[in-house]
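pipeline: protein-struct stage 2 | run 1193 | DUF1634 domain-containing protein
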Amino acid sequence: MERWLSWVLRTGVLLAALLVSVGALWYLMVDGQREILWDCALKGVDVHRGLSPTGLIHLGLLLLILTPVARVALALGLYLEERDWTFALITFWVLLVLLGSLLGYL
């Protein structure tokens, strides 16, 4: 169980760091003189023009925010599989709090 949970955290953080780093380098090469607007996590994603440098940075930050949520959701699934109802209920409550605060943020 611990191996799965640590894998989710490690993979999420490393992937988020990669996205933010690539987006930042791309931004510096293309738009280094303009100011970044941070008002929405998905503002830089444009369906017609593809992904912008700031959109890639935003997606990396969004992935970093969602990584702990994925870890708690995985823990809930593992507790349910083990039929550990007490920890499953506590983990479910934590997941509800995380999702509620995340939806309030977006």
